[in-house]
Amino acid sequence: MSKANPNHGNVVPLGSAMGDVCSIVTFATGSGIPADEVAELVDNGTLPSLTFADFRMVNVGKLRADLLSGKESFKAGDYSDD
Fold first, then answer.
1. Greatest CA span in the chain, whole angstroms?
2. Which residue of 11, 40, 45, 80 has the fewest C-beta atoms within 10 A of its own C-beta?
3. 50 near 59, Cβ under 8 Å?
4. CA of 7: how far to CAs of 22, 23, 34, 43, in Å?
5. How far apart are the C-alpha atoms of 6 and 74, rounded to whole Å?
6. CA-closest candidate to residue 46, choices 20, 27, 18
7. Residue 18 has what pLDDT?
8. pLDDT in tens, 2-59
9. Over the stretch 56-76, which tens digit does the pLDDT of each residue have?
10. Pair 22, 14: CB distance under 8 Å
11. What SS3 string covers the chain?
12. pTM of the predicted protein model
């Protein structure tokens, strides 16, 4: 995660600038993934998320913890129970 992906320009490492929860747009901007893709990944349970009022947020804290504990693959439904 510390190396920038040349296909995505400047990406923000999950550990440095993102809080534990952020909007889909903020996560998309920081990760270099298009916002519509991030929304789809949240909707199908590939990325962990939380809902505040009517806003769906990416649970970066959960994602970070899973990556640090060695999780290497993410597939649809991994976080559907969140």
1. 36
2. 80
3. yes
4. 23, 22, 12, 24
5. 21
6. 27
7. 64
8. 444 555 555 445 555 567 899 999 999 988 899 999 999 999 999 999 998 889 999 9
9. 999 999 998 998 899 999 999
10. no
11. CCCCCCCCCCCCCCCCCCCCEEEHHHHHHHHCCCHHHHHHHHHCCCCCEEEECCEEEEEHHHHHHHHHCCCCCCCCCCCCCC
12. 0.76
Q: Residue holding tokens 């597939």?
A: 75
Encoded amino acid at 22, one letter:
C
Q: Which amino acid is at 37?
A: E
For 46, the token pair is 């590939």
Residue 66, token pair as written in the block: 């899973």
